[in-house]
What does this fold into?
Amino acid sequence: MKLSDVATIKTNFPDADFWIVRRGSLKTVGEPSYTFNPESIGVKVTRPDLVLSRYLYYCFLHLHQSKVWEPVATGSLSLVNIKVSDVKNIVLEPR
It folds into this structure.
């Protein structure tokens, strides 16, 4: 199952549960936030019976701290970005 099966993911999404920094440095790209920015990738859980939005936020925090986004980020050394499709295609495995 992919993240896109349980959540709506898009940019300029003020009604999202949380947002992921889409463009920035290697240290900031992919960082989750509860502050809306139209350039960030919004994530809104549509299947709360399968995953809770607060839990998913902490999963993204872990991904960011584990530097998962660094090899995926594209762009120059000072300004990189991740694509919405990179987030949509994250594979979720039930435990």
Notes: The radius of gyration is 12 Å. The chain has one domain: 3-83.
